[in-house]
Amino acid sequence: MIKSTTTERPREIAAIDLGSNSFHMVVARIVGQGLQIISRHKQRVRLGAGLDDHDNLDNASITRGVECLAMFSERLKGFEPENVRVAATHTLRQAANAHVFLKRAETVFPYPIEVIPGEEEARLIYLGVSHTQPGEGKRLVVDIGGGSTELVIGNKFDSKLLSSKHMGCVTYNKRFFPDGKLSAKHFAAAELSAEGKLESIAQSYIKKGWESAVGSSGTIKAIKEVIIAQGFDDGDITRKRLEHIIEKLMAFTTLDEIKLPGLPEERVPVFAAGVAILSGTFRALNIDRMVFSDAALREGLLYEMEERFQHSDIRARTAGDLASRYHVDLEHAARVQQVAANLYAQCEPNPGNRKTELGVLLSWAALLHEVGLSISHSGFHKHSAYILQNTNLPGFNQEQQTVLASLTRFHRKSLKLQEMPEFVLFKPKQIYPLIRSLRLACVLNVQRTDEELPDIELSAHEKDWSLTFPEGWLKSNRLLAADLETEKQYWKAAGWSLTISETDSDK
């Protein structure tokens, strides 16, 4: 009889990339100090092809995407939410009805989907490439997706220049080859458009420079495979080899006719558009040679999921850098952070994973709530919200940025809750306690003194909150007491209630 030995099973994590052309899932096991890829899954969904002229996804593309996620969920049975990260890119960034897709996905897929900004996508792509691609020195990474192209210059694991441009093989295919016809004129127009899209960043990238250029994802992989089939075993992409592929393409009159050795059948419909984008990129940035990397966005997601690869540090560093850039009073921000965290802990004593994440966002919002002061004191909460919503914040997805912006937008003055944006990953009832905690923390620290606050007891029942201070403290702090009375009126107008009292020594 064989005796079984019990050993701790290695942690398994999964990352999913919801691209404009294909959905990808990669599952990895954490082994020692590294990741061991144990399975990869890919489905060609063509989500981007479903965007109409008003940027609405049609029902067919939504259905294809949801069905793919239902299949992926079968592989993920038993995975805890913290071990799965899902990032949606260009198409769901653009789609006016993205919420329809996300709501339908919830019915078959039990993991949160993050819609990430273009520059955040670029950073994660670079992270994936830098962890898996050998070589030293600065590198340029180019990733041509279905709806957007990301370009990054970095060194080691740090990205220095990031850009995301609205050009991808699916969108360019619809724009320049809508009838499926292939001609030198249409191809040149696509190529010139790509070159023009990069005009605004070309000089800064060329000035920064790089030692090697790396391409990632499906378009560049397909070009590499065609080059290898032509007899170039290294698979490197050069200007001359690209020109040779273009010559071959021009022999066909429709996209459906394209047949090139090494070209996978699934890439045929969007191959010409992808080649045009890469050729325009080579021209704009004066690239001579590019190598291919198997890693991309999903690998970047994997490396950030495990704490030892310091995802938390990235977001903390981002918040710290922003506070420094806008000359935030860090001592005051730290006092607000402490009080806000204390109040939130009292109203959410058993928060769980999702509310723990919200608590962290509250802490960063408290740190950054005054970034708008650098613009003007008048309405600075609105300035702060605009900065946090529209600045590139490495490590944060779009929804997290919206939470930060919302907390700072509503941290003072009237509570116009009808202006609250619609969230996908969170519900308003989860955001309201954060707003209340931050507002009270700001009022309690409005005098910006080093004097410690007393122990304040919070009793919270949904929208009805009560603060209890030590006996006599409010009478000794009449200005703050008056500010709390004003705050009560703001709450009342919003349909909330705030009760202020002191402990009764006779009890």
From TrEMBL:
GO cellular component, one term: plasma membrane
Gene Ontology molecular function: exopolyphosphatase activity
Membrane topology: Peripheral membrane protein
Domain Ppx/GppA phosphatase C-terminal: 314-488
Enzyme Commission designation: 3.6.1.11
InterPro entries xref list: ATPase_NBD, Exopolyphosphatase, GppA/Ppx_hydrolase, HD/PDEase_dom, Ppx_GppA_C, Ppx_GppA_N, PyroPPase_GppA_Ppx
Origin superkingdom: Bacteria
Cofactor entry: Mg(2+)
Signal peptide region: none
Ppx/GppA phosphatase N-terminal domain mapped to chain residues: 26-308
Protein name: Exopolyphosphatase
